[in-house]
Design brief:
Helix content is 48%, strand content 14%. By secondary structure, the chain is α/β, with parallel strands linked by helices. The protein has a single domain, classed as Alpha-Beta Barrel (TIM Barrel), CATH 3.20.20.150. The chain has an eight-stranded parallel β-barrel with strand order 1-2-3-4-5-6-7-10, surrounded by five helices. Helix 9 packs across helix 10. The longest helix has 39 residues. The protein is globular and about 55 Å long.
Length: 307
């Protein structure tokens, strides 16, 4: 199945009915609800979504009170917070998103687990990457320094995530709902590559699954943090869905086919039958339609190879 996220037009189309029509006119089978939707948009969408249930919802949806749509992509409250009140509020708001998923008969809620509160050294890696020095020792030294600083503080935040996931897995089981942990674009965010395995070991047999973001994995590889292919190779058994978007340099959320990524190779390494969702920044309709046609063609080729 190939779907598209409401990320594409949530900010430019305030009317939920018109937003739905714009997305359906692009020719996709299903929609994913992004974190950029307001409460009004969600309520306006509901009559259409009851007839056409979304394939997935990203937490938090709708946007948190007091958060603008433009800032919705930033995590304001964290499931990894060391502040007990903040963490509990993040859990409560996540449960509200899960309740929306149940109401709309949506099977998957995608979770952002938070981050480690460490000094962000990404700009050093980005600068060296932009100067074309990725292959030099100074670049790898900065990557090592950054990840080592993360390790000094990660245990407490990881334990906070475990407490949050314990509550959320219990709710998901009762709701007959899948919650999916997503790989993130930045080294200080949770989970890193090893933490995915840790969480699945801790919650073995739970309704928790893995959600893979192609662009996030590719960005981490460009910045020397983790090879992009490793995530799917290691966690395919838990895989429930994939977000597709292209990179131009380090800039994400472009339509597949107009950036740096080799999509024929990416599709060849993905399970053919996994849910695929285009997660694209606002742009004209034509490149989105071209991206859909590219992904449909590559999906068909992949299915034929599997057969």
């Amino acid at each position: 199945m190939l779907a598209i996220s409401t990320m594409w037009n949530a900010l430019k189309q305030p009317d939920g009915a018109a937003l739905f029509d714009e997305l359906k006119n692009l020719g996709f089978e299903k929609l994913e609800l992004s974190r950029h939707l307001t409460l009004d948009q969600v309520e306006q969408l509901k009559p259409y979504l009851h007839e056409n249930p979304p394939c997935s919802i990203h937490n938090f949806c709708p946007i948190l009170p007091g958060t603008s749509q433009a800032d919705a992509g930033q995590d304001k409250i964290l499931l990894s917070s060391l502040n007990a009140d903040e963490r509990k509020e993040a859990v409560r708001r996540t449960i509200q998103t899960m309740e929306l998923a149940v109401e709309l008969e949506t099977p998957i809620v995608v979770l952002h687990l938070g981050e480690v509160d460490t000094y962000d050294r990404s700009y050093l890696m980005v600068d060296l990457y932009n100067y074309g020095e990725r292959e030099f020792e100074a670049f790898h030294q900065k990557v090592t320094e950054a990840t080592e600083w993360r390790k000094r503080k990660e245990e407490k935040h990881r334990n906070a995530v475990l407490r949050s996931l314990d509550e959320l897995n219990e709710r998901a089981l009762r709701m007959d709902l899948c919650i999916a942990i997503e790989n993130r674009p930045h080294y200080y965010q949770i989970p890193n590559f090893d933490e995915v395995e840790l969480f699945f070991e801790e919650f073995y047999g739970s309704p928790m699954r893995y959600w893979h973001d192609i662009g996030h994995a590719a960005r981490q590889e460009k910045l020397g943090v983790c090879w992009a292919d490793k995530w799917l190779q290691q966690y395919e058994a838990y895989l429930v869905g994939v977000n597709l978007h292209d990179l131009q340099g380090l800039e994400a959320y472009h339509p597949p086919g107009i950036g740096d990524l080799a999509w024929d190779d990416i599709f060849a390494k993905m399970p053919a039958d996994v849910l695929k969702v285009l997660e694209i920044r606002p742009c004209e309709a034509e490149p989105v339609i071209a991206a859909r046609e590219l992904c449909e063609s590559l999906s068909q080729s992949s299915e034929q190879l599997d057969v």
